[in-house]
Design brief:
The complex is a heterodimer of chains A (122) and B (141). Helix content of chain A is 47%, strand content 12%. Chain A is an alpha+beta fold and 122 residues long. Chain A folds into two domains: 37 residues; 74 residues, no CATH class. A three-stranded antiparallel β-sheet of chain A has the order 2-1-3. Chain A is globular, with a radius of gyration of 17 Å. With 141 residues, chain B is mainly beta. Chain B is 8% helix and 55% strand. The longest helix of chain B has 7 residues. Chain B has one domain: Acid Proteases (Cathepsin D, subunit A, domain 1), CATH 2.40.70.10. The chains are: A alpha+beta (122), B mainly beta (141). At the A-B interface, helix 1, helix 2, helix 3, helix 4 and strand 3 of A face helix 1, strand 5, strand 6 and strand 9 of B.
């Protein structure tokens, strides 16, 4: 998404959030905001995630616990921390043009709240 | 050792946390604005999570995805990049304690009482205890 497009979406969010009945997470426009939020996801993240999942079984044997920086569905580098990976990606590829994936086999678990997650089949 | 005392709500311990765009290290000057929101401190959650409306308002970027367990089985979930803050009293004054460059999972559920879950990625940094007699919880780190 272009910078102008992202800015336009954020302006629209702010308009929705100024609604007198709006709180951050509880108001009539939630469905609309969820749809807009989905559009704000960097397309690199989706593509890179699919490529990363294919590589993950192999990476668990060689880079477990590291954070991989991906660009155009290719792993560019590994780092010890999420912060270092994000900094490298931002400097080398620019905002919205890379993603970071942790090399781990551990699932995320929100306990009681797990039912509340968006369901996009893995 | 900073500590925060958290009142117990019937839903659980509800704590105020701050979220902002990543400010870098050292922190950018001026620092990005902080959005203070209500969160449930939940030892059942592996990851701190924020409602997508919070991320949208602040303009946080989705930088990663993870596989999360849901009622319908494993699912891919968005992970935002941002800074998180707690506000302990230090020397009798409130202090904004920054956790820089955190992975913040997207929470789809909307609830009138909270917009976030404070998970074990933060709580495991210290001692989290619940005092039923005093109807409060304490987090020290």
């Amino acid at each position: 998404m272009s910078a102008d497009g992202t800015k336009a979406l954020q302006m629209r969010y702010n308009l929705v959030l100024r609604h007198p009945r709006a709180t951050l997470g509880h108001f009539e426009g939630v469905a609309e905001m969820a749809a807009l939020a989905a559009k704000m996801v960097n397309s690199q993240v989706e593509k890179n995630f699919a490529a990363f999942q294919k590589e993950l079984p192999r990476l668990l044997g060689t880079h477990a616990g590291k954070f991989a920086v991906l660009h155009n569905e290719k792993i560019e580098n590994f780092f010890d921390s999420f912060a270092d990976a994000a900094k490298f990606g931002l400097e080398k590829f620019g905002s919205d043009n890379f993603s970071v994936q942790e090399v781990t086999s551990k699932d995320i678990n929100l306990g009681f709240h797990s039912y509340a997650l968006h369901h996009h089949p893995a | 050792m900073p500590c925060i005392t958290i009142p117990l709500d019937p839903l659980g311990p509800i704590i105020e946390i701050g979220i902002s765009l990543p400010g870098g290290f050292p922190q950018a000057n001026p620092a990005p604005p902080i959005q203070w929101i209500k969160a449930i401190a939940d030892t059942g959650c592996t990851h701190t999570s924020i409602h997508h409306s919070v991320a949208a308002k602040l303009g946080l970027k989705v930088l990663s995805k993870g596989i999360a367990n849901t009622a319908n089985g494993p699912a891919a979930a968005n992970i935002y990049h941002g800074d998180m803050f707690l506000r302990p009293q230090i020397g009798g004054k409130p202090f904004e304690w920054r956790y820089a460059d955190r992975q913040l999972l997207e929470l789809a559920q909307n609830h009138p009482k909270y917009d976030a879950l404070l998970g074990m990625d933060i709580l495991s940094d210290g001692l989290f205890s619940v005092n039923g007699a005093l109807n409060c919880a304490t987090f020290c780190w």
